[in-house]
Amino acid sequence: xxxxxxxxxxxxxxxxxxxxxxxxxxxxxxxxxxxxxxxxxxxxxxxxxxxxxxxxxxxxxxxxxxxxxxxxxxxxxxxxxxxxxxxxxxxxxxxxxxxxxxxxxxxxxxxxxxxxxxxxxxxxxxxxxxxxxxxxxxxxxxxxxxxxxxxxxxxxxxxxxxxxxxxxxxxxxxxxxxxxxxxxxxxxxxxxxxxxxxxxxxxxxxxxxxxxxxxxxxxxxxxxxxxxxxxxxxxxxxxxxxxxxxxxxxxxxxxxxxxxxxxxxxxxxxxxxxxxxxxxxxxxxxxxxxxxxxxxxxxxxxxxxxxxxxxxxxxxxxxxxxxxxxxxxxxxxxxxxxxxxxxxxxxxxxxxxxxxxxxxxxxxxxxxxxxxxxxxxxxxxxxxxxxxxxxxxxxxxxxxxxxxxxxxxxxxxxxxxxxxxxxxxxxxxxxxxxxxxxxxxxxxxxxxxxxxxxxxxxxxxxxxxx
Amino acid sequence: xxxxxxxxxxxxxxxxxxxxxxxxxxxxxxxxxxxxxxxxxxxxxxxxxxxxxxxxxxxxxxxxxxxxxxxxxxxxxxxxxxxxxxxxxxxxxxxxxxxxxxxxxxxxxxxxxxxxxxxxxxxxxxxxxxxxxxxxxxxxxxxxxxxxxxxxxxxxxxxxxxxxxxxxxxxxxxxxxxxxxxxxxxxxxxxxxxxxxxxxxxxxxxxxxxxxxxxxxxxxxxxxxxxxxxxxxxxxxxxxxxxxxxxxxxxxxxxxxxxxxxxxxxxxxxxxxxxxxxxxxxxxxxxxxxxxxxxxxxxxxxxxxxxxxxxxxxxxxxxxxxxxxxxxxxxxxxxxxxxxxxxxxxxxxxxxxxxxxxxxxxxxxxxxxxxxxxxxxxxxxxxxxxxxxxxxxxxxxxxxxxxxxxxxxxxxxxxxxxxxxxxxxxxxxxxxxxxxxxxxxxxxxxxxxxxxxxxxxxxxxxxxxx
Lengths: 466, 466
Description:
By secondary structure, chain A is α+β, with helices and mostly antiparallel strands.
């Protein structure tokens, strides 16, 4: 118990921003807000500017300084017009602040830039009253307002502890790449459970499905489960009763958080707050690869696309290939996608083996059916059979090709694998292989790819790493 | 049609005994009967002597001359006494006829010897009235009487055609080794369907379950199916309404006969009456073995036992090993037993492969269960994992041994495989291997083993062989 509190005290220092970071963020925010206000003056339909996100709520954690500047638009502005305007306003703004604007896409485009070490996002939303949402970002100002109104003084650090814990455990981030917990979700959980320690205690006892309804919008747990079937974690949005704030959280990420909470309480340690990003040596990777059946699909993109779009395409293609491998008769133990989010991508699969049996059983009709003699005629020259077992005919058939990478390549090229349309061309030209040496050679060029391979081969969530 | 009749005419010559065989059998039978009558005179309880079986009914086929001499006992003679007496009487009789007596076992012991090229069996039965059967052979004299009473003049050759067809197709014989059609069953089918051609026509249209009730003992097909559930072929014994004459016929043998009948009608040929017993060359076997995953278990018996007992033990052990292989994760395409019926035995299995994957998935508990942390502690040092997928923990485990023959040998030695007690010792000392060379070396010593291997590897019923 002492132990736990001591560890949490030390963890505060890890998650709290430094004075320097705080001052820097404050300065960037002030510059950005005043520049934005000036930037929209004279633009019809752009009605206001606000700071949102963790900077507005003072809940950002060390190393994650972000300024989310929202430009509010009149609902009479069309979607198209809004998209055109935010790209224009945002690009000018980032340039004016001395950054290099990059156009990003979520529900609609926004503009990102790094200013004095701080990530600045210029985002559009409609000024509407709940529940008349037009775009996905319209709720954000209400989220900020709700959290500011409910967080007690000093509770910001409790939020930071929970976010820092989630980050180090690999479950922080609602983007498709992570499928984890958003900052807003961490804030709501802190509000609901009051303190970090209490939140971790409650989480360690979670047995999905979990339902949390801060504003008591629903009569009962049953009604919540009815409204959000199949979600393992449901946190009703205090700003929109029809929305699950945890909709992006995958069952796997949820389970990882539960286990991390259990293990943390059992043996508290600041390890649970320190993200590890050690790049392994080639020798270490080689040792991990020994005797494993690892299939990889490596390809390069020819054109860029929004990060979330790319991750979605990768994950869908990974699933498509996984199903194809299983249909061919392989067992897929695990699979994962990787990309540097610019050019390089890799899908990677761990299998039971890399070859199918040379011969396989082919089932024919029962002997009493009309087509039994046709079957016999067709397979008369088989190496083994046709023979009869029970009421049925069988024959042993030979496979010309048995190697998984060649079989998969054939199917991909002939269009038999369900792959995202946007990646089809790149994957049809992909390097598909099971050779450990060439995989290590690929990885030797990139620390990020090495880290990813280590994570995949060791297959331990961050909090279980040595 | 002409074609069919012509082929059947030519087949008659193949199945009919030669004059020489006929004369020889007749002479042996006369000698045996008169010697038997003399042999039982003065033995209290032995009341009569008769000729039974195909010789009595004139339905035996060329190359299968057999004299079944039955000694009838008074029902007051005990089982033990009867067994003692038949061994004594039979042995003396065979010796007197100039043969070498061998004691055989079916339901109870009998004595076999070869006299002038004819197999003579001296068998005991009780003289009882139906349905007061004491032993399994008591029905035989009634079977003989029934067939003699129902066969029309000249129909003996129809029986011979059917028996010869069944023999060449590998389905003739009710013993455990074959699990096929007895001579009596062939006779009943001929009586029921009148001629060979008609029988084959009917059989070619059979769709199991088949019910035949010559004496109309049952009201309906449904009643027959109720009385003999799970039998694919039911021929009610005209001599005993509670007995299925086809009880020994396996589904596989039945299906083989159906298919043979279909193919024969489609393309009549005397091939369907000529048993093939060509021994293959080692080169032919080597070519068939290429790339196949063949596991064999070869052993020598230390003591003799009745043929049917041995075959039963072999087949049960084959099934036990098959289940063990499947439990270990192999797919068994086919398996078969072989023995020279004296010393050598072999069980042989065709598998999808000869090795298990080096790594396998080990499923842990869901993270929300109490024992989740124990699982994590236990497997912390695993090469891969513990990881979480969905709600559950997993880990990748390494197998020290992956070769099927070594894995099987371990399990057999440690008594984990369901093997017939009578073969346990011999199989625990068996040669278990997957090596084609050593298998070919073993086979090179015995034409019978070579034939068996050819049959197993080519896996075609006799009527589909080239």
